[in-house]
Amino acid sequence: MRLTKILTNACLLGAMVTVTLYGHTGAASAQAITPVLLPAGKPASQAGAPAPSQGTSNAATPSQAAPSTNAPSTAPATTTPSTTPSVTITEEWGGVTKLNSTNAIPLMVEAQKRYAYVLAGGEVGANAGTFQLNGQTYRYLSQDIGTSVKLSSYLQQTFTRQASDALIGKYFIQYNGRMAQLESDGGSMLDWTRSTAKMLSMTDTARVYRLTVPYANNAHPVERIVVKFSLVDGLWKINTAPHLIF
Questions:
Q1: Cα-flanking dihedrals φ and ψ of residue 48, to 5°?
Q2: Strands 37-38 and 63-64: what pairing?
Q3: Rounded CA gap, 34 and 175, in Å?
């Protein structure tokens, strides 16, 4: 059992414009909705969450996901308070070139920080703005992850393209060329810094580990989570959708 907290607030904003969803359909006007191309960027959280480096937005050939009729999801609601502190900017993540039970842990810790960072809307205090759409309040992401290229590139520092696209398609939309998400807040009580990993299977380019993760202050029994990893351009990346882990 994993606990997270989401509080969703509503506000009104009058603009009616066309919306492009990652994997979703729906429009605020009579104009047609088009799916967004998610570029496969060069591998680009709350405290310690590294904000993306300026000017890093290299992308490979984009792929196009078929739109669905579902609206973007909000993060799972929970009554458990978050232990993730506020975001600060740190140095660029160097990556993991050799994966084992020991260095899988810092990769998971870094990935959780990036996951928390994007779900919180990016940089704290950025005040990127909000808008009203279909009776719900959305907020823009901060400038450092505010486009599809920047957001995908930032996540791909620790996740594969496939895993990054899964998260983006579930929780984010593109609105007037900017990335946005439903306005909400939450966090996790899992303490990834104290987690342990056990390898379940391996090949030269793919591995599966079972992570045993305690809660902060051992408030609940440990969680056991199976995570897939893939070798991408010499660096090991998490190949399980972030929202299925954290």
A1: 80, 0
A2: antiparallel
A3: 11
